[in-house]
Design goal:
Layout (H helix, E strand, L loop, with lengths): L5 E5 L4 H11 L10 E5 L20 E5 L8 H11 L8 E4 L9 H22 L5 E5 L28 H4 L4 H11 L6 E6 L3 E2 L10 H15 L5 E2 L2 E2 L9 E3 L4 H5 L1 E2 L2 E2 H13 L1 H4 L3 E4 L7 E2 H11 L3 E3 L11 H8 L1 H5 L3 H5 L6 H5 L1 H4 L9 H5 L8 H14 L5
Parallel strand pairs: 1-2, 1-4, 2-3, 4-5, 5-6, 6-13, 7-12, 10-15
Antiparallel strand pairs: 8-9, 11-14
Helix pairs in contact: 1-8, 2-3, 3-5, 6-11, 10-17
InterPro entries: NAD(P)-bd_dom_sf, PRISE-like_Rossmann-fold
Organism: Apiospora saccharicola
Pfam family, one: PRISE
Length: 406
């Protein structure tokens, strides 16, 4: 029987959006869940290099729409979707994974992001009378982690977002998203939920502005190469047999190395988004759900040695770093010509962009426990779990496959 579900993913070139399309096409959780997927992106995507599942078999139909600027207006967006998405009048699920950062102007950032989501809801609502569910991601910024030392004592629970300092809440788009969606769905047949991750670990074929996994992967890749360790084979590093172990200290401080956190694979977020849309009675009505790969908190001190080992390095604590050691972005900038020398021009063009300085400081300013409670999530019946290390290593493998690292 042909599925009556049709998904549209906004932000398909981004960290979560790419995984969302990938999981819909997989198909997760089972064949026939969706009949079609429309992948909408601002940045151009070469479908031949997207690394999504190939057509055929049980894969839903895919329509890629690139070059879409959501900041314009709802009518322009509706016209574009009507022209380029054959099943636009059948759309049942909106997966919205778009966020635009505006440096040093939180008021403008909130306004821009609220307008983009409003345009999406207005456009899709005008085109499809079959809309059932909308999903968007928040984040631990919504728990006040940008306030030095954090705002709440961990584990962080979803009800805490209602108790943020007023001046801090004004800097966030998420509360505005909630109010807007609550108003938009009133009296309608569709509903929505919000998903809250901490650090998102995943892959994008064109790089990313804020991918910690790619940031560290390029750093460790170049670090290993410069210390005589060649790219991995199927069985491990290729040309460092018998050589002395090469240590790479964690780029941060001891408190950052040992604080508790809840990393999550982008694929896990996508799986929850699909699950929520298929279970509106459990997950709708504007509910907020924390998400992580594991119910057990992690420490960078536990993860870092495994990440370094994938590159043939020995990951150690931050005690080995000196004040003269380059930060990851500085190291990549100094040595990125190596990528070009090995024909990896994409690694130079598709690395981490404007967010690299913020990512440099992750291990130095996130020095407090910020793990997420998954109790509310588990009450819905969503049971997916994953070793947090596995998500990182899967991303590393995809980066190498895509030519983003050595």
């Amino acid at each position: 029987m042909m599925s009556e579900n049709h998904a549209i993913v906004f932000g398909a070139s981004g960290l979560i959006g790419w995984a969302m399309v990938d999981q819909l096409l997989a198909p997760y959780p089972a064949p026939g869940t969706f009949a079609s997927v429309a992948a909408v992106a601002n940045r151009a995507i070469d479908l031949a290099e997207a690394h999504w599942p190939e057509p055929g078999g049980d894969r839903p139909d895919l329509r890629l729409v690139s070059g879409v600027d959501l900041r314009r207006d709802a009518k322009s967006l509706a016209d574009t979707l009507k022209q380029q998405v054959p099943s636009v009048n059948k759309i049942t699920h909106v997966y919205y994974f778009v966020f635009t950062s505006v440096d040093h102007d939180h008021e403008e950032e909130v306004a821009v992001n609220k307008k983009m989501l409003q345009n999406v809801i207005d456009a899709v609502s005008s085109l499809s009378q079959n809309l059932k569910f909308v999903v968007f991601p928040g984040g631990t910024r919504g728990y006040g982690i940008y306030i030095p030392g954090g705002t709440f004592s961990a584990p962080l629970t979803e009800d805490m977002v209602n108790n943020l300092p007023a001046d801090y809440e004004e800097t966030l788009a998420y509360p505005q998203f909630r109010k807007m969606l609550a108003d938009a769905c009133r009296g309608k047949s569709w509903t929505w939920c919000e998903i809250c991750p901490d650090a998102v670990i995943g892959f994008t074929p064109n790089g990313s502005q804020f991918s910690l996994a790619l940031h560290w992967a390029q750093y460790l890749s170049l670090y290993a190469y410069n210390h005589g360790i060649g790219p991995r084979t199927k069985d491990g590093p290729s040309n460092n047999a018998g050589s002395a172990a090469v240590e790479v200290p964690f780029p941060g401080v001891s408190a950052g190395y040992n604080s508790l956190c809840s990393p999550v694979s982008a694929s896990t977020i996508a799986q929850l988004a699909i699950y929520a849309g298929q279970n509106p009675e459990r997950c709708g009505d504007g509910r907020l759900f924390n998400i992580a790969d594991s119910d057990t908190p992690a420490k960078m001190g536990d993860l870092w040695p495994h990440l370094a080992a994938w590159f043939g390095l020995v990951g150690t604590g931050p005690e080995g770093r000196s004040d003269t050691d380059l930060l990851p972005s500085e190291y990549v900038e100094r040595h990125q010509a190596v990528f070009g020398e090995h024909g990896l021009e994409k690694a130079v063009k598709g690395g981490v962009g404007a967010g690299r300085k913020q990512l440099d400081s992750v291990g130095s300013w996130l020095t407090f426990d910020r793990q997420l409670s998954l109790d509310r999530l588990r009450e819905t019946g969503f049971a997916e779990r994953k070793d947090p290390v596995a998500g990182w290593l899967e991303a590393f493998g995809m980066f190498r496959k895509a030519g983003l690292i050595l």
